């Protein structure tokens, strides 16, 4: 495998509803990709986004014994796998905490699933929660 094949795109900020409405397919590198519409843009007015690595934020609903968690953003839930393999991942995840999760997309629908690469507790600053949807929309409209 050469360097180009190993590279992943940077994480794209997304909402769980966008992934649920997206279409799964296998990308050229053999990894799962979700093709989805951009937030705040009428379908067909710009190119859809192809996401394989996602940045999502939400409130932890549950942490399970199988190394995973269920998180709720403002549009629905998504699952996070591999929390024990992320530094301070498990300690950031307790019900009611507002967290950021970056991870590799494992499924779009019926429920989005991420394999965690980074987890951070953002609960201390309410601005993170209030601005999230605007950040997602702004980034998606800016991406080429």
Automatic annotation (TrEMBL):
Give the UniProt entry's GO cellular component terms: cytosol; nuclear speck
GO biological-process terms attached to the record: DNA repair; maintenance of rDNA; negative regulation of double-strand break repair via homologous recombination; regulation of sister chromatid segregation
Q: Which InterPro entries match?
A: NA-bd_OB-fold, RMI2
Q: A Pfam family for this UniProt protein?
A: RMI2
Keyword annotations of the record: DNA-binding
Instruction: Keyword check for Iron-sulfur, yes or no.
Output: no
GO MF term set: DNA binding
Concerning PANTHER family, the annotation shows: RECQ-MEDIATED GENOME INSTABILITY PROTEIN 2, RECQ-MEDIATED GENOME INSTABILITY PROTEIN 2 RMI2
Its recorded name reads OB DNA-binding domain-containing protein C16orf175-like
The organism encoding this protein is Scleropages formosus
What is the gene name?
Answer: rmi2
